[in-house]
Design brief:
Number of helices: 11
CATH superfamily of the domain at 2-7 and 75-206: Tetracycline Repressor, domain 2
CATH topology of the domain at 2-7 and 75-206: Tetracycline Repressor, domain 2
Radius of gyration: 19 Å
Shape: elongated
CATH class of the domain at 2-7 and 75-206: Mainly Alpha
CATH architecture of the domain at 2-7 and 75-206: Orthogonal Bundle
Number of strands: 0
Strand content: under 5%
Length: 222
């Protein structure tokens, strides 16, 4: 665990409290997440978000047509912050797929940290709306597909979909721990993630093609 903690890098993001350009997408997203964290996502309306962002409803409509669009933009921003600098992870042949996934998932939690209250609200409220939950599940699958690809996991075909769903299950399990982990070093979160990935690795040993935790060897030049 100590080795993983040393290797993990914080995701690139604006410093806490950094001002966003008024009326920009990030400013609106931050306003929505602030309200979700204090009032709950279900009780946050578009008029509330516009007021929090200091915009008229017409100005907000010019940027986002629905709460779902704001949520989609938030997830895409977290994806970008998680994948910032990921080229170095992808090009490192000395680490296993499991270690790469560990690093990437912890980077994602780093990016989500300023919005933990909002994430907790989303986790509570979205399952109550089947359509919103379905849309969010699609967003999460796309995010996990990107992370799996960076880690060296093939995501093509039916088997690739199975791998993505397996990674989603790992992520959601660990997120429940992260939401209640207030420690500075995130020791509980890292321990839960390490255990979940090890269980997935054990499953892969019984069904070898399901989740390749060892990076495939590169073919030697002839």
């Amino acid at each position: 665990m100590a080795r993983k903690a040393q290797r993990r890098k914080a995701a690139t993001r604006p410093a806490d409290g950094a001002a966003r350009p008024r009326g920009g997408d990030d400013h609106i997203i931050d306003a929505a997440m602030t309200l979700a964290g204090t009032n709950g996502w279900r009780r946050t309306g578009l008029a509330d978000i516009a007021a929090e962002a200091g915009l008229s409803l017409a100005e907000l409509y010019g940027r986002f047509r629905s709460k779902g669009a704001i949520l989609d933009a938030f997830v895409q921003r977290i994806d970008r912050e998680t994948l910032a600098g990921a080229d170095k992870i992808a090009s490192d042949d000395t680490t296993s797929v499991r270690d790469r996934l560990f690093d990437l998932i912890m980077r994602r939690f780093d990016a989500l940290a300023p919005h933990k209250a909002a994430v907790a609200s989303l986790a509570r409220d979205l399952p109550a709306s089947p359509m919103a939950a379905l849309c969010t599940g699609g967003r999460l699958c796309r995010s996990m597909a990107w992370m799996a690809s960076v880690a060296g996991v093939s995501t093509s075909g039916p088997l690739g979909l199975l791998r993505i769903k397996g990674l989603v299950a790992v992520y959601l399990y660990v997120m429940r721990v992260w939401l209640h982990d207030d420690s500075d070093d995130h020791a509980k979160t890292m321990s839960a993630l390490d255990a979940a990935l090890r269980r997935a690795e054990m499953f892969a040993q019984s069904v070898p093609a399901s989740f390749p935790f060892k990076r495939p060897r590169r073919a030697s030049a002839s």
